Give the backbone structure.
Amino acid sequence: MTIQPPLSAADGLSESAPPPDGRPLLTVSSYADAVAAVDTLADARFPVQHVAIVGRGVRTVEDVTGRYGPGRAVASAAFTGGLIGLFFGLLFDWWGALTPEVGWGWLALYGLAYGAFAGLVVALLFQRAGTRRDFSSVRTVDADHYDVTLTGGERAEALRILHDAGVV
């Protein structure tokens, strides 16, 4: 087993990033356009293992989707707990149908009730812990532009394929 020291930002790029000698074939403004260019190369049987999509000017964007107050958090946790309880209740109810000792459906209802109660308790404990985030959001990573780079292979051939397809 080999232990390697962690890389810092000053140490260079990670193993998944293209080497510094990768030259851009083209620069596009959207990720979908970059993927379309790589798809074009792949369709033409170009060795795409030498191609990388590099986002430049990367930033995170957090879109707020709505208010997520304490009431909604507790209701959501109770609902989720109820679904989990219902699942296990149905599972054990099905197993009980093979050896009937309790009427069909009761274990599912008990599972639903106990799961909802457990979710409610967990949500109330988290509320007591003092969570201060009162909104829900979706976080994405976005870039100003994307470079489709070539680290090996035939650059002239790749440019010809992209030109013939009308990408460049």
Observations:
- The radius of gyration is 27 Å.
- The helical segments are 31-43, 70-98, 106-129, 155-164.
- Residues 24-58+143-164 form one domain.
- Residues 32 and 146 are 10 Å apart (CA to CA).
